[in-house]
Amino acid sequence: MAQERKGFMCYRSFRDAINELPIEERLEVYESIVDYALDKIEPETAKMSGAVRMAWKLIKPTLDADWTRWQNGCQGGAPAGNQNARKQPKNNRETTEKQPKNNQKQPTVYQDSRIKIEDSRLEIVDNSKNNISRKNIEKEFLSEVEVDFREVVEEWFAYKRERGEQYKSKRAMQHFVTQLRTLSKNSRKEAEAIIGRSMANNWAGIFEQNKTSNNDQRNNSTANTYRPSFSDYGEDTI
Fold first, then answer.
1. What is the pTM of this model?
2. Is-contact 195 188, C-beta < 8 A?
3. Residue-range domain boundaries for the chain
């Protein structure tokens, strides 16, 4: 016994074509569509008016294509070679990459700023290790700074860390201390003033204190100010 078709697709294009017909002829087209789509009953086109016959000719190719797809589905799928027959494996619906010819599985790597996954092994890239290393460099360097300047330099390093601008090498740190001593003329009090001024103004570098009075400073457009360049902090400075 032939399998009965339970339903069919009715498209918007059908309605648009039928709506061009007079109301009294639309029912004839709808009945023709239903009979053909469900039971493959051909309408008597010879008895149709010219407008109805034209609408039917526009609709019939779509119904034929749907019939072919339905019949293929009843038989287990599309014929071999048809692109509709390219089915995914039942146990793996996701698209997978083609394996190399030597059958060696390629590592799958997903990486962001902190996590790297390779061949199902999870490795945490911990940036805190770099921070610990820099802190150790700072601690070792500060132990070598003269006692009178140590607290001042330590305060500046803490300020730089808060800005995300740590010194990366002892060479850069030593260069900074040399500049601070030069600008402050080896005066701890002057060095504290220089550091405090930069931090209060959210500056990235240090500058020589203005020697003029407040009144003179208002009247002068320029002052004896030291403006450091990147080279002042060493090649590793941020």
1. 0.36
2. no
3. 12-76, 129-233
